Automatic annotation (TrEMBL):
InterPro entries: MTMR14, MTMR14_PH-GRAM, Prot-tyrosine_phosphatase-like, Tyr_Pase_AS
Gene of this entry: MTMR14
Region (Disordered): 479-512
Cross-referenced SUPFAM superfamilies: (Phosphotyrosine protein) phosphatases II
This protein's name: Myotubularin related protein 14
High-level lineage: Eukaryota, Metazoa, Chordata, Craniata, Vertebrata
One GO MF term: phosphatidylinositol-3-phosphate phosphatase activity
């Protein structure tokens, strides 16, 4: 185990070329740490160095060594524990996890989960760990992981671990079974608690994975002894990667594609505590009627809402084996928070794309070779889906802004300041005063001006709303959570508008200073910036994917028209993949 400053690692390549090399390697050979990477060692080492260099741009971190797969056979050979923002003061968000104790807990708990894919922190956000894993292992894997491992996997979606020769319910083995689960799952619970994980989001459409009539995995939501009762369990069933063959067969069109919830093996209903759904304005009772786009959007909104809560609790996301649906949502979370400027703030679009493809998908064991051979293109879906989450409703900044509103006003009303009053240091009207001062503690090249809005009663608020309704300006206001009777100037955020003669709407530019409650390196962005950043990532992915892997054309329609997305490649991107058209 080694603490890594991570600043001396040379990059493996640059831009599109290094991403193309990664995709080619990903599509040709299966990565496994226990096999020395399963592909050319030099290529894997180059990918690993690049990931460490990209993590080191924004974070201090330590590494848990897994060079020969001794910790987990299909986790990265260098498992990264993000500790704090690089260069941040000790007053900023920082993980309390110590890598030595974490490694000990991992070694004790890894048998608790399918294929030994233990709870692993992968994203650090506001001091909270966002983690990934497989689901809980069943009886058969715990007793016979060594001789029968992978017998029943067959490379299927989220392939399960070993089949159980004897079910958990068999009374002859009940006592020994209970003692084993108490011990192994007890270590798993200790690991979760050490990582401060409170929320566990289970993407399985089953309560337990069944093969040949036997339960081959379990899950927290059906643990008979209720060992996980102290955690907030969310059952958010999401189709496995077999379903994404339908996505490919429909010409890579997710709109209108609805999962068949009436299949015999689907027995896990959606179950979310009401307290986590009240602010989302989503009718969760309709989830079985959602198409793939709406379902993915709503689940992502839920995850963002959870990690944006006021507590310090972390989040675990898992499916069955944790290498299809799990990286889908981990990758979307990483990219969405990056697009808001909240994590990996210094990375360019091509760099965050490389990092999430290499670390979240490749090094965590996604079976791209197998999935491509079966047309189960969940990997492609993930990055093409970015076009559906560009709006502010998916932004983690949205809820933060709403928490900072002065009493009696909505965000939209705060954003409607008069053009003639913008920049005034004396007044907004007779009922408001505007105080502005430069920041004495601004970090780097950032500066900011603090805005104090002091309403003088309901009548004044109503008059202000009426007066500014005809002249909306995109001015965003935020504050640290301090005294309610006076809004402090330190650490405030202001977005200024650039005027345009051709439109009444303006582009937003953020200027932010530092305070003990902020991560200095974070770079908040406007809604328009978020959209452009995600579109850059998507475009870069489509271009590299087209050059390397390519899309498989579906059978031609009677009209002979090529598929919509393939046509987009040819006409929009201007590239042809090696296996397309």
């Amino acid at each position: 185990m080694a603490a890594a400053a991570a600043r001396g690692c040379p990059p493996a390549g640059s831009g599109d070329r290094s991403l193309a090399e990664l995709l080619l390697e990903f599509s040709r050979a299966q990565y496994r740490a226990k096999d020395g990477g399963g592909v050319a060692a030099a290529k894997v080492e180059r990918i690993e160095r690049r990931c460490l260099e990209l993590f080191g741009r924004d974070y201090r971190y330590s590494v848990i060594p897994n060079v020969h797969g001794e910790v987990c056979a299909h986790y990265p050979r260098h498992i990264v524990l993000l500790e704090r923002d690089a260069g941040a003061s000790r007053d900023s968000y920082e993980s309390t996890v110590q890598v030595g104790k974490l490694q000990d807990l991992i070694n004790r708990s890894k048998m608790a989960r399918c294929r030994g894919r233990f709870v692993c922190p992968v994203i650090l956000y506001k001091g909270k760990h966002i983690c990934r894993s497989a689901t809980l292992a069943g009886w058969g894997e715990l007793y016979g992981r060594t001789g029968y491992n992978y017998i029943f996997s067959g490379g299927c979606d989220d392939a399960w671990a070993d089949a159980e020769d004897i079910s958990e319910e068999d009374s002859a083995f009940r006592n020994a079974d209970s003692q084993l689960f108490d011990k192994v799952r007890g270590h798993d619970i200790k690991l979760l608690r050490y990582l401060s994980v409170r929320y566990i989001c289970d993407l399985m459409v089953e309560n337990k994975k069944v093969k040949f009539g036997l339960n081959v995995t379990s899950s927290e939501k059906v643990d008979k002894a209720q060992r996980y009762a102290d955690f907030t369990l969310l059952s958010i069933p999401y189709p496995g990667c077999e379903f994404f063959k339908d996505y490919k067969d429909r010409d890579y069109t997710a709109e209108g594609l609805i999962f068949n919830w009436k299949q015999d093996y689907v027995d896990a209903p959606l179950n979310i505590p009401v307290s986590l759904t009240q602010s989302l304005n989503i009718d969760w009772s309709e989830y079985q009627s959602w198409d793939l786009v709406q379902q993915t959007q709503n689940y992502l909104k839920l995850l963002i809402s959870i990690i944006n809560s006021d507590d310090d609790s972390g989040l675990l996301v898992h499916c069955i084996s944790g290498w299809d649906r799990t990286p889908l949502f981990i990758s979307l979370l990483r990219l969405s928070l990056w697009a808001d400027g909240l994590i990996h703030a210094s990375l360019e679009p091509s760099e965050i794309l490389y990092l999430t493809v290499a670390y979240d998908w490749f090094l965590f064991g996604h079976m791209l070779v197998d999935r491509l051979s079966k047309g189960e293109e969940i990997f492609f879906f993930c990055f093409n889906f970015l076009k559906h989450i560009t709006s502010e409703e998916f932004s983690a900044l949205k809820s933060q802004r709403r928490k900072s509103l002065p009493p009696g006003f909505t965000l939209e009303e705060i954003c409607m300041l008069k053009q003639k009053d913008r920049g005034s240091t004396t007044s907004l009207s007779s009922d408001f005063s505007l105080g502005m001062e430069s920041s004495p503690g601004a970090a780097g090249s950032f500066t900011y001006e603090a805005v104090e809005l002091m309403p003088a009663g309901a009548q004044a608020q109503a008059a202000w709303r009426k007066s500014c309704a005809s002249s909306p300006q995109a001015v965003l206001w935020s504050r640290a959570q301090q005294s309610e009777d006076r809004l402090p100037s330190t650490g405030m955020v202001e977005v200024k508008s650039s005027s345009s003669s051709s439109s009444t709407h303006s582009d937003n530019f953020l200027r932010i200073g530092s305070s003990p409650l902020e991560v200095p390196r974070s770079r908040l962005v406007s809604a328009s910036d978020r959209e452009s950043r995600l579109e850059e990532v998507r475009s870069a992915f489509l271009a590299s994917y087209s050059r390397t892997i390519g899309l498989k054309a579906v059978p031609p329609s009677p009209s002979g028209a090529i598929g919509g997305l393939l046509e987009q490649f040819v006409r929009g991107v201007g590239l042809r993949g090696s296996s397309t058209l």
